[in-house]
Amino acid sequence: METLDLRGEKCPDTFVYTKIKAEEIGYSGGGKLKVIVDYPPAVESIPRSLAQEGKGYKVLEVKQVAERTYEIYIEIPAFED
Amino acid sequence: MESIRAYFGSKYRLVGVKLFKEIPEGYPTPAKPGKFCEFVRRAALGETILMRAEDEECHQSLIALGFQEPMFIDIQPRIQPAETKAVLIAPVEEIPDPDVVLMIATPRQVMEAAALLHGIEAKFAGEIAVCGEVIAEPLKSGKANVTFLCGGARMFADYKDSEVILGAPLEVFKELETKVKALEKSCGALCGCKTSDLPPRVIQVFSELGFERGIDYFFGRVDSQNVRIYLNKDINGKISYVTIHFPVKGEVEVTPPFQARKRGAWTDLYATFKDGEGFDISSGKGLKELIEELAAKVKKK
């Protein structure tokens, strides 16, 4: 599983970086991605924005690991070229 | 509310925001989706917008404004429970009974508003800002708040770096309006237009009356009293008010038309008059008589 550490980033950059990484994984055969954020609104906006992409992203779990630090686990399907 | 805008010299209109649990008829919806903070800015420039959930691009705003409940964590501030179906955003005069009023302002304008409101306890975090910090938060607390906006608002909604937003329930802005109107009548603190900005004819009038020219007032002595005279503009920028001020050491009788303020051992006795009501600023006609009449009314206790 790949990890994207976005601590220190704020919206909308948190989603933009997540989307770029997710597409990279999707075009490489799919897989899982762990995104770490310390900007609480991103915990809500990243999953919703991914859902709007319509690419079959699935948020598996959201875990709070410290005060204001969260991990978002995302399953990314394989994309066809 | 126009008097607030005029007092603060804002180029933006005050924005009213009203939340609906049913979508109301008869209001224009945006041609394409945008962000609430962007719609607020457009309303400050005169537009009326009815924002439904499908018109909002920002997920955080949907939560903060009560369109949706959070799915994963409880982010705050937000309107709860989430029962909002539409939000009307428009110049405040065009919304009957808005829930919240917003003023796009400079830090200086917020400072002046805070002074009039006897302080604002601001609560902000740079996230969920226009939708949360100055809509949900004032609705929850019933008090004014200030937001310095969030990354999204700064990036997408075209706010200037020098702009922040003051938000408060309508009642708070009504209080602000009352104070601003009172200041218009009393010309506020004892200060006036800079005399260097006055027309030469007006300066000549006071010179002919025997008054010296200070930075923002004229001063002289009448009937053994020190007198200061301040000239103030109305909300249209016209010099329309004259405040005649007698600084008196000790206690004095305060009788109409005087008002008084204590300043240490001194009492500031002052009265404000509108141009045209018995005198004329541009010609000086009637001014000397008015000042002498007032000086005769200054009575030490």
Q: What does this protein structure show overall?
A:
- The complex is a heterodimer of chains A (81) and B (301).
- Chain A is α+β, with helices and mostly antiparallel strands and 81 residues long.
- In chain A, strand 3 and strand 4 form a beta hairpin.
- Chain A has a 4-stranded mixed sheet with strand order 1-2-4-3, with helices on one face.
- Chain A has one domain: Translation Initiation Factor IF3 (2-Layer Sandwich), CATH 3.30.110.
- The longest helix of chain A is centred in the first third of the chain and has 14 residues.
- Chain A is globular and about 40 Å long.
- The mean pLDDT of chain A is 95.
- Chain A is built from 2 helices and 4 strands, in the order βαβαββ.
- Chain B is α+β, with helices and mostly antiparallel strands and 301 residues long.
- In chain B, strands 2-3-1-4-6-5 form a 6-stranded antiparallel sheet. In chain B, strands 7-8-9-10-12-11 form a 6-stranded antiparallel sheet.
- The chains are: A alpha+beta (81), B alpha+beta (301).
- At the A-B interface, helix 2 of A face helix 3 and helix 6 of B.
Q: Would you list the SSEs of chain A in sequence order as H and E?
A: EHEHEE
Contiguous uncertain segments of 5+ residues of chain A: none
Strand-pairing-aware structural class of chain A: alpha+beta
List unreliable stretches of 5+ residues of chain B.
none
Radius of gyration of chain A: 12 Å
Binned, the helix content of chain A reads: 25-40%
Provide the fold topology.
The complex is a heterodimer of chains A (81) and B (301).
Chain A: E1 2-5, H1 13-26, E2 31-37, H2 40-53, E3 58-66, E4 69-76
Parallel strand pairs in A: 1-2
Antiparallel strand pairs in A: 2-4, 3-4
Chain B: H1 2-8, E1 15-20, H2 36-44, E2 49-52, H3 59-64, E3 86-91, E4 100-105, H4 107-116, H5 129-141, E5 145-147, H6 151-156, E6 164-169, H7 170-186, H8 200-208, E7 212-213, E8 218-222, E9 225-233, E10 239-249, E11 259-263, E12 266-274, H9 287-295
Antiparallel strand pairs in B: 1-3, 1-4, 2-3, 4-6, 5-6, 7-8, 8-9, 9-10, 10-12, 11-12
